[in-house]
Specification:
Elements (H helix, E strand, L loop, with lengths): L8 H12 L3 H14 L4 E7 L5 E6 L6 H6 L27 H7 L2 E7 L6 E7 L2 E8 L4 E7 L6 H5 L4 H18 L4 E6 L2 E6 L5 H9 L1 H4 L3 E8 L2 E7 L12 E5 L2 E3 L2 H10 L12 E7 L4 E2 L10 E2 L2 H16 L29 E3 L17 E7 L3 E5 L3 E5 L1 H19 L3 E11 L2 H9 L1 H6 L3 E6 L2 E8 L7 H14 L9 H14 L8 H8 L15 E5 H8 L5
Parallel strand pairs: 1-7, 11-13
Antiparallel strand pairs: 1-2, 2-6, 3-4, 3-6, 4-5, 7-8, 9-10, 10-13, 11-12, 14-15, 16-17, 17-18, 18-19, 19-23, 20-22, 21-22
Helix pairs in contact: 1-4, 2-6, 6-12, 9-10, 11-15, 11-16, 14-15
Length: about 575
Amino acid sequence: MPLVKVLPDILASQVAAGEVVERPSSVVKELVENSIDAGAMTVMVDIERGGVGLIRVADDGCGMAREDALLSLERHATSKLRTAADLASVMTLGFRGEAVPSIASVAKFRMLTRRTEDISGTEIIVDGGKVRDVRDAGAAPGTVIEARSLFFNMPARRKFMRAESTEAAHVEQQVRLHALAAPGIRFRFRRDDKVVFDLPGVVNAIDRVRQLLGNEMGGELITIPERLGPGMSLKGFVLPAKHARKGRRYQFVFLNGRPIEDAAVTKGLGEGFRGNLQEGLHPAAWLWLVMEPQLVDINVHPAKREVRFHRPFEVRDLIAQTVAECLRPAPVKRPEPSKEISIAPITRPTFHSHQPELVTAPPTETASTTKRRAPDFRLIGMLQERYMIMESADGLVLFDPKAARERILFEKLFKARKDGMETQSLLVPLLFELDPRDFDLLLRERMALQEAGIEVEAFGGNTLQVRSLPECLTPGDPHEFLDNLLEELLHGPAAAGRFAFDRISKVIAMKAAQRVVPRFNETASLLEELFQCDLPYCAADGRPTLTEYNRKDIDRRFGVGRS
């Protein structure tokens, strides 16, 4: 008896579904791509329970006759390819013919479709890969596909699904990607019978970006005019470097209408912004690439997220040069100086004094006072407007006011939590438009944020409302401070896991301390406050607040005392 056997059709489809259908957003991706390929001008996506309960994608595309509708449920049945040569020139989003049968094999599936020229449509019911019913039905021109009870017959796969809100956020992000890729199409997304967004089709791509980005940031978009390269063209938009983020979630790249991810594109953007970005930050960009299909292989990833360029260096250079030119400031004509204008010489202030200043903590008031004394340091000067230079009894001390302020604030937050967190209500609540996945995470962690004095609420759509801050904070620009704070919490080095109070406090203290401007005349009071802390010698993240260079070590470096 042979050991090797051919898999039954249903089992083969379920195996294929493991590659194509990872989660509800994968189903939405495949069905929306089919709608776009069908020439739809309106695509409506509905989900329930994060897509596990129901996924419905309806379009007004060309529809199908009964014979084609039944064939679409067969594996590797497609209208996009006829010969092997077609694979090298395919321009449609879907072409393998695996998506629909794979979805039908892991869900309770219903298709309703009708061509414009037909009197009636066709309804097909499939249950776990088995066709249960095929009948005539009344329908508007186009196609409606429903997938209910996703993975009902694959409990192992369903066990690994995330929370419903998380899955819904991924679906919303997928629909937004398609809305950007095809700005001329109307996209409506509804979640649990509530409309999340309804975006009418627009003529210009910038209008679609502004629909999703909001008017405030949309007004700062820098247009990348169409630029031609060898067998390709590029156009799009970028935001100024101040909007760069730690992650790449604000980088949207579309190749021949398909959302993609590729290292050549990322490197090209980074090189285009070279000199404008801090280390570890990524610019916000919306790029549309059109390329001859022979120059790219789109068949290297089951979900077609990744592609392989035949000449990746040309793609990278085209993006880098185009973006760099758009960011380059226009030359400014300098007016000829008038004879009546006199320019005073610029002088740089100095922070050094002729007589050293003695910095000490005030004497204890009573014998019962438990306040620590700051060490007796002699303040000498300031190094590059950042570090304080001081003399101790044993040698030289460098003092970092930013690290000191971080330690002080970190311990204040812990004391406030113990005594009852005091908050300051913002006169006008601050609004932040977020990525759906980030919005979902912050709402789930709102009690942890509230424990740290930051009260957040949903405002509508993916807009988060911040109503309060800890009383001990005095940020100059609360919107900028909170924007940086949320970015670090969501996408910083320690972004994984829950929002523990210790982590939130560290990030708050770090971000607040970064805004501190070291001042020479405030050193004494800052040292006094620092040495009331339990751990005055290190910041919240373990960095030192003071570093001492022993006199013996200094003498050794200069060879003092050698015979």
